[in-house]
Write a structure and sequence with these properties.
- With 313 residues, the protein is of the alpha/beta class.
- It has 2 domains: 2-115 and 238-312, 3-Layer(bba) Sandwich (FAD/NAD(P)-binding domain); 131-234, FAD/NAD(P)-binding domain (3-Layer(bba) Sandwich), CATH 3.50.50.
- 23% of the residues lie in helices and 27% in strands.
- Strands 1, 2, 3, 4, 5, 6 and 17 form a 7-stranded mixed sheet that branches.
- α1 runs parallel beside α3 (65-71) and α5 packs parallel to α6.
- The longest helix has 24 residues, at 289-312.
- It is elongated, with a radius of gyration of 21 Å.
- The mean pLDDT is 95.
């Protein structure tokens, strides 16, 4: 039986693994079906992680983390976790995609969240064919071309700035006349000559041909505006990845809020003893790397205390 199972390999999961193993737990496995690092690996530039100065990408930031964790004994299982079962004796069973399972004394859930779709016509049909949620992944394809970005938060503005360095022009489409981003980020956007603000506008339709996207229609106060662009990037929020916590009847093994986020206390404890949550899956998550890492550390420390009490009384 595992001492601790960590589900998810982003900043929260990796930090939980580091603190758990370095803190004395001998049998800790992190379940992450892909490469560790999380969504931050898709970010073009990180400038607000403490101690990191100069230009650095999310991929560069996360590169050393897995090796550091494994140095202290963290195991990485590259398999999908389908569900986490809370058993009557208080332990947990991790049901995996390869039809095997493992038991654990405690679990830290760090499965995060994924980008939401906006919901306009053509978005799904042209997703991956000109519609994208990752500027770092796909921005290069539009070098010296015009693109549109949809959204008004920090991510939308930060990715607009990134795309502005590559593309000839960026149309920033937002449904309001004010942004929900950090003042410094807004100032940088306003000062970037090749970013055009398209405010009080909602996307109506993205259209294209066999080659991909050729334009975006947005609904404005003056009527429908047609923006001819080969690329459309959407940044309008996230969906909580809480599926592993669901039972067959769609109820969860711990308490969730209306948005599906895991309710935790300051020690990252859920309503289920032995189950902890860290990072973007929890309530009121700031969705910042430094905060997710802090969550992971807190969750691991709490898990160590829980396991020690369970084993030694």
């Amino acid at each position: 039986m595992l001492d601790l199972a960590i589900i998810g390999g982003g900043p929260a999961g990796l930090t939980a693994g580091l603190y758990a193993t370095r803190g004395g737990l001998d049998n800790v496995t992190m379940f992450e079906k892909g490469m560790p690092g999380g969504q931050i690996t898709g970010s073009s530039e990180i400038e607000n992680y403490p101690g990191v100065t100069g230009e650095i990408s999310g991929m560069d930031l996360m590169m050393p983390w897995p090796e550091q964790c494994q140095k202290f004994g963290l195991k990485h299982s590259m398999v999908e976790v389908l569900s986490v079962e809370h058993k009557s004796d208080g332990t947990f069973t991790i049901h995996k995609g390869d039809r095997t399972s493992e038991d654990a004394l405690a679990v830290v859930i760090c499965t995060g969240s994924t980008p939401k779709r906006v919901g306009f016509k053509g978005e799904d049909d042209l997703f991956g064919k000109g519609v994208s949620t990752c500027a770092t992944c796909d921005g290069f394809f539009y070098k010296k071309k015009e693109v549109a970005v949809i959204g008004g938060g920090d991510t939308a503005l930060e990715e607009s700035l990134y795309l502005a360095k590559i593309c000839s022009k960026v149309y920033l489409v937002h449904r309001r006349d004010k942004f929900r981003a950090a003042p410094n980020t807004i100032k940088r956007v306003m000062e970037t000559e090749n970013i055009e603000l398209v405010l009080n506008a909602t996307p109506e339709e993205v259209y294209g041909d066999a080659m991909g996207v050729t334009g975006l229609k947005v609904n404005t106060a003056e009527g429908i505006r047609d923006i001819p662009v080969p690329g459309v990037f959407t940044f309008v929020g996230m969906n909580v990845n809480n599926e592993v916590l669901k039972k067959e009847d769609d109820s969860a093994i711990c308490e969730l809020n209306e948005q599906g986020e895991v309710i935790v206390d300051l020690r990252m404890r859920t309503s289920t003893p032995g189950l902890f949550a860290a990072g973007d899956i929890r309530i009121v998550a700031p969705k910042q790397v430094v905060c997710a890492a802090g969550d992971g550390a807190v969750a691991a420390i709490s898990a160590i205390a829980y396991i020690d009490e369970k084993l030694n009384g």
